[in-house]
Design brief:
single chain; 636 residues; alpha/beta; 23 helices; binds adenosine-5'-diphosphate; binds magnesium ion
């Protein structure tokens, strides 16, 4: 291990940040806020916190907090840095992500998701644990970073006013709109040169209509032609696409294996997997074996996946967009921006020179937008508005770097009012709102949980919300679709998909051989395990919120009544011509074929999701009795 750690130390010292370390430390000493622009691979994320700590910049006991846009980035980077410091994770170097806190009183360098930092600000507005906060990957413009830009700046000012120890802020990013950041923070920027190994670029000559197929064809061409130690990373858009591609890739790999090609191991990587499963993809592959990672944009920025020499970029991403007519967040497949395409390319040149294959033409690339649209401009703000209020900030006057549209802000406040979380103008938090803020969920889902106590079905509500928080638990094997439907029909409920989900869960927890039980029933084992874990965490939160436990057993009408209290905006109604429209927006919608209510025409349904393809599909439904609507909610 001595040899390994010596070479690790040598590698570190060669990163571009070390050339500038003296100047960097001076600038940080001199300024309360500093913006660091560095091309990818300069050593920002892994090295700067270590530099600051060893220079004594964190004071004698203060913590350096570094936010990451995603869970797996926070965990994998913290582990790497712990290794560089030769300590186990959780001691000097730790991390904190939703549902997992690996820190201790000795922790001085802490990687955490933006969401966790906001949660900390909710109980401590001046963020007193930290002497330095680094907002990493600011260019990605996730809602959390955008909110933190304001929240940390406010904490800095408050500490000044209250004469507390100062808070240093560092905003780090690869490529950003520098002027915008320097103006917003009134702070100087410093540039770091990148250290990207050479990445050779390829574009397709012709436009491709099936990007998954072209990506797989490319992957197997690489597999047949290059040495086994060169791993491959493909960017796709989401779980279902990735799981389907994984099945196809494993089949082809098996055939080739027999023909003397290296063994190929396939690793899916997307956010609905548990952190532990996501980290599998980061492990170096054993000699003679090739790794094929099929990832969403969770692997796009920040991370280094060991062994990757070829990146295949499909140029698409699943993005949340707020749908003004339905008032809902919709996931939709979009072209990436140029900045994202370059980040993806960069993953091929982290450790050595590599190659990037784009399954689109150069002309198509030229048409991509330069930067991604900040998420805050395109998603529902109710959850963020609630969190800000808990910190003591009114979203209607909050100083955003890019202010979301007024409509979106007003809708968010109106939604919270309707749920009973806020009242008055400017909006004030109610006791209910404070309880709601304890749950890391969309406020409408939290409302379902709170309302479920009135309907004696807390247990069932927690199960259903846990299942809805993860990804699809139903497998959809194209070749065996009929068989899958037949086997699973015993779980189906004529009350709708939520009760069906509940039935599956209840059977699942009773099954002794869970993996094979899932196989027999065409269910997704990992996603069910994930839901069990989330359910456990939600139960703990419910206890913390002092909710009285209850169960409705087989009287599942109660569950649907509780769902209605949180999701009353999500109703669709049958028309004379047998089509559906959304009740609040009068927008035409269609029941998704995956629903157990597909083909049955209930008068009124509640939906959880909207998917926009050629039609506006509604998914995860429950039948609602129209007479329930006349009953006033307890909370009104
Ligand atoms: P930046 O944030 O500037 O993009 P990082 O600090 O994340 O840079 O990483 C700098 C370099 O350190 C990477 O390009 C890679 O060579 C090396 N590195 C970082 N993490 C790992 C890891 N987990 N395994 C192998 N090399 C790593
Ligand atoms: Mg980085």
């Amino acid at each position: 291990t001595d040899k390994i750690s010596i070479s690790l130390q040598q590698q570190r010292k060669q990163l571009p940040v070390y050339k500038l370390s003296k100047r960097l430390l001076e600038e940080i000493r001199r300024n309360n806020t500093l913006i660091i622009i560095g091309e990818t691979g300069s050593g920002k994320t892994t090295q700067i916190p270590q530099l600051l700590l060893s220079a004594g910049m964190a004071g004698s006991s203060g913590c350096i907090g570094i936010t990451q846009p995603r869970r797996v980035a926070a965990v994998s980077i913290a582990r790497r840095v712990a290794q560089e410091q030769n300590v186990p994770p959780g001691k000097l170097v730790g991390y904190c992500v939703r549902f997992e806190d690996v820190t201790s009183p000795q922790t001085r360098i802490k990687y955490l998701t933006g969401g966790m930092m906001i949660r900390e600000a909710m109980t401590d507005e001046v963020l007193s644990d930290y002497s330095i906060i680094i907002l990493d990957e600011a260019h990605e413009r996730s809602v959390q970073t955008d909110v933190l830009l304001g929240v940390t700046r406010r904490a800095q000012k408050l500490r000044n006013i209250k004469s507390l120890s100062p808070l240093k802020l560092i905003v780090m990013s690869a490529t950003i709109d520098v002027d915008k950041f320097t103006k917003y923070f009134q702070a100087p920027a410093i540039y770091l040169e990148g250290r990207q190994h050479m990445v050779k670029m390829y574009h397709t000559k012709k436009s491709q209509n099936d990007y998954t197929f072209s990506a797989l064809v490319t992957a197997f061409q690489i597999h047949r032609e290059s040495p086994a130690n060169e791993d491959i990373l493909i960017f796709l858009t989401g779980q279902e696409e990735i799981e389907a591609a994984a099945v196809a890739a494993r089949q082809v790999a098996k055939q080739l294996d027999g023909k003397g090609y290296p063994q190929l191991k396939v690793f899916p990587l997307y956010s609905a997997l548990s952190t532990h499963q996501q980290l599998e993809a980061f492990k170096p592959s054993p000699p003679g074996m090739r790794k094929l990672v099929l990832a969403t944009n969770v692997a796009e920025t920040s991370v280094t996946i060991s062994g990757i020499r070829s990146v295949i970029d499909t140029g698409v991403v699943k993005e949340k967009t707020h749908h003004p007519t339905t008032g809902l967040d919709i996931l939709r497949i979009e072209k990436v921006s140029k900045a994202q395409a370059w980040q993806r390319t960069g993953r091929a040149g982290r450790e050595a020179s590599g190659k990037c294959y784009r399954t689109y033409t150069l002309e198509e690339f030229e048409k991509f937008k330069e930067m991604p649209i900040p998420e805050i401009q395109r998603c529902s703000l109710a959850g963020i508005a609630l969190q800000l209020l808990v910190i003591g900030i009114d979203i209607t006057t909050f100083d955003f770097m890019d202010k979301p549209p007024d409509d979106a802000i007003n809708t968010a406040v109106a939604c919270l009012e309707k749920l009973g979380a806020v009242k008055g103008s400017p909006p004030q938090l109610t006791a209910l709102g404070r309880t709601m803020s304890l749950f890391p969920l969309d406020p409408r889902f939290t409302k379902v949980i709170l309302a479920s106590t009135e309907h004696n079905c807390l247990e069932e509500a927690l199960i259903v919300i846990a299942l809805l928080s993860g990804e699809n638990i139903f497998l959809d094997p194209v070749a065996k679709r009929q068989q899958a439907m037949a086997v699973r029909s015993r779980f189906s409920s004529d009350e709708g998909d939520h009760v069906t989900l509940l039935n599956v869960y209840r059977h699942y927890v009773k099954a002794t051989q869970k993996k094979s039980w899932c196989q027999e029933n065409f269910l997704h084992f990992r996603n069910l395990e994930y839901a069990v874990n989330v359910k456990r965490q939600l139960t703990a939160l419910a206890e913390k919120a002092k909710l009285e436990s209850s169960s409705c057993e087989n009287n599942t009408e109660n569950l649907r009544r509780a769902l209605l209290e949180g999701l009353s905006e999500n109703l669709a109604e049958l028309q004379r011509d047998q089509t559906y429209v959304a009740v609040t927006s009068r927008h035409p919608v269609t029941i998704h074929p995956s629903s157990v209510l597909h083909g049955i025409k209930p008068q009124l349904v509640l939906f959880t999701d909207v998917i926009l393809t050629n039609r506006c599909y509604i998914r995860s439904l429950s039948i609602i009795d129209p007479t329930w609507l006349h009953k006033k909610s307890e909370f009104d």
